[in-house]
Specification:
By secondary structure, this protein is α+β, with helices and mostly antiparallel strands. It contains 7 helices and 9 strands. It has a 5-stranded mixed sheet with strand order 2-1-7-3-4. α1 crosses α3.
Amino acid sequence: MLAQVNTLFKKRTFAPVNSLMDEKLTKPVLVLNKNWMAIDTTPLYKAFNLILSIDSKGNPKANIIDIDCIPYTWQEWTKLRPKDDEEGIRTVSSNFRIPEIIKLNKYEKMPRQRVVFSRINLYKRDGYTCQYCGLKPKTEDLTIDHVNPRCRGGQTTWENCVICCSKCNKIKGGRTPEEVRHYLFPTGMVLLKEPVRPKFKEIKFKAFYPSWNQWLDDAYWNVELENDN
């Protein structure tokens, strides 16, 4: 089972969610440093890379932390089953709980803070609003659109991704906004605003899981972010 999960997660890269499994694998995981201080969040599939990686002494680079603050190795975690109200990830041979927090076993620094490029932060940046028609439908009717389509080399970045409703996404297809000709957009689609990397103060962070609350305080989340460039 370890090899199966290892193979599944180590080859993944960020991409818009297109299945239930992908949605689970891109859920955020809170990252603690060696001193039990929250330093970042990371998608679940990247967290698995750390959990399954071994250092030079044969120890895992990260452990999973449960709400009771007990660290678990991957082998120990896979023995735990989801509770009735918990989601799980099902493999061919098992069904295990989704980790919500991991702790790095060697890293003890506090890195430069930044707004994580993630689905939830894209939604927050764009105000859960379609950037083409301006409507604010239900979350399940929103998706991520590449302004310059991926089929034309468009990158998955803050500057090329916007939140888009399902209808506008279908209308746009694999074209650039300027190329679209539709009765709703007779002269092309125009973005409500230019997509840019948001500043930290523009993103209001909240605990994705209740288990995060004890690790997140105002001092951590209100740190002013520096430009990555």
